[in-house]
Amino acid sequence: MPTFDGALKANQKLEEAETLFECDAPEDLATDGTVLLLADGPRLLRLDDGQATEVRRFDRPISALTVLPDRGLAVALAGKEVRVFSAISAPKPSVVFATGLNAVNALAPGADGASLIATDGSATQGVEQWAWDLLERGRSGRVLALDVATGATKTLASGLGFAFGARMGGDEVLVSESWRHRVIAVGRDGSTRIVLPHLPVYPSRLSPASGGYWLTAFVARSLLIEFILQEPAYRKRMMAEIDPQYWIAPRLRSGLSFKEPLQRAHIKTMGVVKPWAPPRSYGLVIRLGADGVPLYSLHSRVDGTNHGVAAAVEHQGDLVMIAKGPGRILRLPIAPLDQELRA
Amino acid sequence: MDNLPGYPDNINLASDGNYWLALVGMRSPSLDLAWRMPSFRNRMAKRLPVDEWLFPNINTGCVVKFNEKGEILDSFWDLHGLNHPMITSMREHRGYLYLGGIANNRIGRYKLEGADPNFVQYETRWGRR
Fold first, then answer.
1. Which residues of A touch B42 (CB under 8 A)?
2. What is the pTM of this model?
3. Exposure winner among A98, A105, A139, A326, fewest CB in 10 A?
4. CB of B46 within 8 A of CB of A228?
5. What single DSSP character describes residue B108?
6. Radius of gyration in angstroms for the set of CA atoms belonging to chain A, rounded to a whole number
7. How far is B41 from chain A (nearest CA, A)?
8. What is the CATH number of domain A6-341?
9. Based on the number of CB atoms within 10 Å of its own CB, is B91 exposed (0-12), middle (13-18) or buried (19 or more)?
């Protein structure tokens, strides 16, 4: 398993980030350059300098969110349905996609204004059940193109080890294939190309940066989890007999109960938790160049709390991020990061 | 005392005739399952570095008081191990319970309500020298 080295060299930038807002169930962020939108459970909020205003409310939790180039809005609800609105506050959706969707966890504008890219993480597990999909070695993730004009759905890629996050890059769609720890590019003809392999983390949503991308990693790998993935008998009994919150599996937050698994390196020694101990939860955002190569990264390490970063968007010179672990919206000004870390 | 929630360590006298017991770490369901699967543990020990092995949850501090019948009378916790994780030993002395752990850089002291303020363990056990 690779280590956090090179552009992934650890720092505590995420741990030091300003907390802009706190809420119970932050899930995704979107911006059109002026308005910053946050999905918090079933609520769609507009954030203005840390003040939240409810824009609209749905009957189910929002599982993905994006703003379209024509200022339209697309939301996925509980992974099962995608609704497209002609404007952020439009009363009724202009088109609804509700068939064949199971775990839509990310949305992005397509190559032309008439399409929308969606990643559907798993055909068998719901959008909140990603840990089940990992432990069952799920390979049913899909990348879909949703035609906003006709309501048609086209599968661009399938058989992925959990698809979680997509973004157009030229003619291709960059996709995070979480369980295979890599970012791939899916071409118009459905061909795939590996862009960024061998990550020490499970990558998630992508968003555009000026000349490149921001790649989040909602959870991190560890040797113990890799080992468990090769132990079907233990895994089967663990999943059948143990409360999921105490499984040996990556988590968005950790250290809440002594019933959680603990490894030797986690032992607090001389009053200190070692930041380099194997992560049960971790915070990481990677800045990618236009070619998908990492330039630098922002961390909240094992001794930190800003873990489970599932969304990051550029907004008016800041990087705004969701740390699902503590339920925080974080902000870091980008220019100083570029100056300090982009060697 | 059977089926304790943690791993017992040192036992010591309490001033009221009962006993103190340090639980060095707590049981976790994932490690309990591993205890029942010896070949799994064998492979874990061979394939993973020692630092990656499953361990009892030692980042928790717990001392319990029990009587001669083996009944738990009281418990004191540092649930998240903020100050006193991994308590391996404790000793009551002049109305306080002193707490120590072999990987800690500190000794704790806890004021015991209603405990004998003159209780000194050596003299209780061996008589005045």
1. none
2. 0.95
3. A98
4. no
5. E
6. 19
7. 10
8. 2.120.10.30
9. middle
